[in-house]
Amino acid sequence: MDQLNLSTEGMTDAEQMLLSMIFSFASDQLTRTWTIQQGGPSDVVIYDLANPRARVAWERHRQDAHPISVVLSEDPIPDLPWVLQKPVRTQHLIPFLNGLSDWMAQHHTATAATAAAPPSADPFDTLKQRLGAVASSRLSQAGALQDLKLIISGSVAAGKSTAIRTISDIPPINTDVPATDAVSFLKARTTVALDYGELTLADGKKLRLYGTPGQRRYDFMSKILSRGALGLVVLIDNRVDNPLAELDYYASMFTDLVNESAMVVGVTHRDQAPEPGLDRYERRLQTFHKPWPVFPVDPRKKADVIAVFDALVTMLEHSRGPYAVAGRP
Ligand SMILES: Nc1nc2c(ncn2[C@@H]2O[C@H](COP(=O)(O)OP(=O)(O)OP(=O)(O)O)[C@@H](O)[C@H]2O)c(=O)[nH]1
Ligand SMILES: [Mg+2]
Question: In CATH, what number does 124-317 get?
C-alpha cells in the first residue's frame, strides 16, 4: 500500500490543515503519502463528535475493527487509546503525535519505514538536530536566506530577553536600559534595540536568535530584524489588560514572515495571571486559519523554551503549504 487515505467528517479548513500537519508528522515514521478526502474508502477515519453526522457514523462503526480511527471530541472518552480534543489543545500536540506515531508504527510494521532514529537522551540536542535539518533544507532552496535567524517577539515584559538568556549557547548580548516611562512600573530595565543569542546546531551552523524590543515605538526595529527569518516565536504576557489584542497585533505585524514561515505563541506570566486560558488564545488563532500552536511558557525554564522551539520546528518541517503532506518520496 503506497498511500494511506485520511477521511474527515465536516471539519473546517483550518482543522483539516492542522490534521494534515499531524498526520504528516506521524508519517515521518511511515513511508506513506497521506491525503485528506471526503468520502471514499479510507484507512484512517477522523470523527468529529461535535458534528452530528459524524457522531452517528462513529457510533455505528465503534464496534468495527477499523485499523485506525481518531476521534475529535470536546469530552474525554475513557475507553479510547487517544482522542484529539476539539479544539485541539496544541500544547499537547507533540506528546500526542509521538504516541500516535508509535501506535501507527506498531500497526504497520510490515510496511513501516526503517526504524525511527532512537530518541536522543537530551531534548536540547534533539532540538538542535532538528533545527539543523530544517536550516539545511531552507538553505538549499533557491533564493534562500543566507542568514539563519529566529525572531522572538511580543509584548513588553513578556520574557523575550529572558527566553534568549535561557536557551542561548553564548552569553546573550542585550541592549536593556533602565526603563523611564510607563514601562518602569512593569520592570526596571527594558530592551531598546534587540537581544542577541546563538544556538550552535548539530552540524556547527549558527542559528541567530533575535529578541525584539517590546515597546511599540521600536516596532520598526522588529520589522527590520524579521526580514528573512526562519520563524517567529511570539510571547504574550498574560497579565496585560487585553492579551488577545496583543496576539492580533503581533500576528498582523509579522504577516509577511508568518505567511512564508511559521509562528508559535507562548503565553507567559501565567503563574501570576492564569486568565485568560489557553483555549481563548487557540480560538483567537483559529481566526487566522493557520494551525499556529499555543504553549504555556515560563521563559526562565529551559524545558519550556525548548518545548516552544520544538513546536516551531514541527511547524517549519511541515510548512510547505496546506496539504503538502506527501511524506517522503
Ligand atoms: N513569574 C514570572 N516571571 C516571568 C515570566 N516570564 C518572564 N518573567 C520575568 O519578567 C521580567 C521581564 O522579562 P524580560 O525578559 O526582561 O522581558 P522582555 O520581554 O525582554 O521585556 P522588554 O524588552 O521590555 O519588552 C523578568 O524579571 C523575568 O524573569 C513568567 O512566566 N513568570
Ligand atoms: Mg527585553
Answer: 3.40.50.300
